[in-house]
Structures are given as C-alpha cells and as structure tokens.
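> call design_seq(struct)
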C-alpha cells in the first residue's frame, strides 16, 4: 500500500495498553491493524500490527474455514471495508484491495457485490483458542477524534463462559509479558 497512516499517537497506544483485561486494537481506513494491546494479540493472530483484516480473513487464515458462520464473517468484513470506503475518499489502495480480493476469493467477491450486506450493530464472533477454548466476543468500533483515518476496536465477552475464558487468557498474557 502506498498510503501509510501518519502513525498512531503514543497516547492512543498507551491507552489501549492500559487495558490489560480488554482486547483492543486500532485500525486504519484500509482495515490494517496499526496498534494492538497484548490481549487482542492473544485472542487472534489477525489482531497484530501490520495485519490487514480483509486480506487475513479471505486469503491468509482459516477464519472462514473454521467458523460456524463463514457467510456472516464474509459479509461483515466486506461491509466494514465498504463503510470505510464510503467515509474516506477512494484511492489506489482501496481499489487494489478490492481488485486483489475479488480475483482471489469468491467469498469476498460475493460479499462485496451484495450491497445489502452490512455489519450488524451487535455482531458477535467466536474465536477458537487452543488454551482457553472458544471465546465469543462482541465489539464496538469508535472513530478517533482528530485522527479521521483511525478507528478504535474494543472487544467484550458475549457470555459468562467467554468472560471466564478471556480472564484466563488475560492472566496467561500478562504472565508472558512479565517473563
């Protein structure tokens, strides 16, 4: 991609890092993770700095193959990219992502062409985890004032089992960062 984000202000990185029990990351307009806290990285390898969530979903991971709801995820991610494109001016980087994924993934092409597919207000997703088991999490995306290209994504447990698993994962992640 030619357009690089101006960088994540240190106070935003410090903010998400100060939430050890809340998975959070910051993404840019192309849905590339530009900052993530330790718990977000522990929840999913897709929540690491430099990972483009669209490419990861449709090209680089088993997200669609292991999910019980692959169509929901495909529609959600394509719809989120469409929403970002509607908020920002189209450019070569957006076009490159859409062209690349339309050619490489029939699931992306179908979801992209379905203009009625939009992210839900209360979508939840299940993340398999080898150590703590499945985590079902919902999220909120928040625009960051004065940083129009950046969006804060904060995850929360959708049920008690996920709350317990997330607490266990946070304990593991904090222990690993102290070592």
């Amino acid at each position: 991609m030619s357009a690089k984000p101006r960088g994540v202000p240190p106070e935003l990185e410090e903010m998400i890092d100060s939430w050890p029990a809340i998975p959070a990351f910051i993404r840019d307009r192309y849905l590339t993770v530009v900052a993530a806290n330790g718990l977000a990285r522990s929840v999913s390898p897709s929540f690491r700095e430099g990972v483009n969530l669209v490419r990861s979903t449709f090209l680089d991971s088993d997200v669609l193959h292991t999910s019980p709801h692959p169509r929901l995820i495909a529609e959600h991610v394509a719809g989120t990219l469409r929403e970002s494109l509607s908020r920002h001016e189209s450019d070569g980087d957006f076009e490159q992502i859409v062209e690349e994924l339309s050619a490489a993934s029939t699931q992306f092409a179908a979801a992209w062409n379905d203009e009625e597919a939009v992210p839900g207000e209360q979508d939840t997703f299940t993340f398999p985890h080898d150590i703590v088991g499945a985590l079902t999490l919902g999220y909120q995306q928040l625009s960051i004032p004065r940083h129009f290209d950046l969006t804060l994504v904060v995850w929360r447990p959708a049920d008690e089992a996920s709350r317990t698993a997330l607490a266990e994962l946070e304990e593991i992640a904090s222990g690993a960062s102290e070592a």
